Amino acid sequence: MLARFLVPGLLLTGLLGFTAFRPAPVTPPATISLRINGLPIATDTLGSRLFVGANHTLRLNVIRANDPDGEGLTILIDRFPLTPGTYAFQEILSGHNRDASYRYNEVAAYSKSCPDNPGMVKITAVDTVHHVLTGTYHCQVCESGKGARRFTMTGSFNFPYEEE
């Protein structure tokens, strides 16, 4: 008689335990894109990095897939509070250190070399549990010296950040 009540109880407990199990949310794969003057450039997701410093700095380093040992594009934002927001380069004039530089083979270009250096990093989401930042960037960098070319760099990222 006891077995008749015990078996359904065990089945019910087993089913409840099974339905309560939920796998951890899956983090989307790391993505980072780069466009130069509108042309897409393949990126190296293993070499590219996002750093958030203990002193509230953000450093975004986008490496080209065809130059994995190169410097690529580096954007530096100081006074980054690890919250969503827009961080504009025009604020360099107000004492903030916000800059972009780009190196590829013989090309070296800097945002400070442009007479007008519009640029911004827009952080749309911060996941402090998985250490992932999501956002976009846009900047202009100019070669210094003769034949100074202007490059417009744009892209988006959903990428893990490292703490420095």
Write up what this structure looks like:
This protein is mostly beta strands and 164 residues long. It has one domain (29-163). 12% of the residues lie in helices and 45% in strands. It has one helix at 2-20, and strands at residues 31-32, 34-36, 39-41, 49-52, 57-62, 72-78, 85-88, 98-104, 107-110, 119-127, 132-143, 150-160, 162-163. Strands 1, 2, 3, 4, 5, 6, 7, 8, 9, 10, 11, 12 and 13 form a 13-stranded mixed β-sheet that branches. It is globular.
Distinctive features:
single chain; 164 residues; mainly beta; 13-stranded mixed sheet; 12% helix; 45% strand
Radius of gyration over alpha carbons? 23 Å
What does the largest sheet look like?
13 strands, mixed
How many separate domains make up the residues? Answer: 1
Distance between the termini: 66 Å
Uncertain regions spanning at least 5 consecutive residues:
9-16
Number of strands: 13
Task: Supply the number of helical segments.
Answer: 1
The ordered H/E elements are HEEEEEEEEEEEEE
Secondary structure category: mainly beta
**What helical percentage do the residues reach?**
10-25%
The shape is globular
Strand content: over 45%
Average pLDDT across residues? 83
